Amino acid sequence: HIPKSAGRSIVRGLFDVKSVEHAAADWYQRWDAEKFDRYYKFTFVRNPWDRAVSAYTYLQNGGSAASADDALWSRFVNRFDSFDDFIRTWMTTQNVLRLGLFTPQYLFLQDVFGQQSMDFVGRFERLEEGFDQLANQLGIESKLPYLNQSRESPYQEYYSRESRAIVQRVYAEDIARFGYGFDDDNV
């Protein structure tokens, strides 16, 4: 489950589970390599510019009430004048590794050998289509519930030219691997 990529909605719809972890694939592989090799592994990715706005607004609004980390990060992001200020001041390739909400997505998908280890990679931008394909693959009849929707403005409106370029640089690997562009709402 890559943070801010509809993971809670997906596992609720497929397995009626309310909580999910944000552990990377290599963690699961180390935990039980035999199961890791046997299990069907899937995830959903999201446009990095959209995901950055989602993570920021989630924290700006307090994050999860049950998470001490979210409370700490919420206070931190609220010190900035705006999303644009946050990106220009804080976002670096090193800083994004400090919190899973900002960690590059490709790092969640790698096994202990650094290889992408997913059997299915869906796209947040085509969530319902991907969910239906995944449910069909798993032999599960279900509808996708929509949880944690938090923003009404298009993510593009949050960016200046400078902050847009910073996200492009910091998430260059995600952009290249998953074929995203700044204006790609429906990749």
Verbal overview:
The longest helix has 13 residues, at 48-60. The chain has a two-stranded parallel sheet. The protein is 44% helix and 4% strand. It has helices spanning 7-15, 25-31, 33-38, 48-60, 68-77, 83-90, 127-138, 161-170, 172-178, and strands spanning 42-45, 120-123. With 187 residues, it is mainly α.
SSE layout and pairings?
Blueprint: H1 7-15, H2 25-31, H3 33-38, E1 42-45, H4 48-60, H5 68-77, H6 83-90, E2 120-123, H7 127-138, H8 161-170, H9 172-178
Parallel strand pairs: 1-2
Strand content range: under 5%
Query: Could you tell me the mean pLDDT?
Result: 91
Number of strands: 2
- Tell the overall outline: globular
Features:
9 helices, two-stranded parallel sheet, 4% strand, 187 residues, mainly alpha, globular
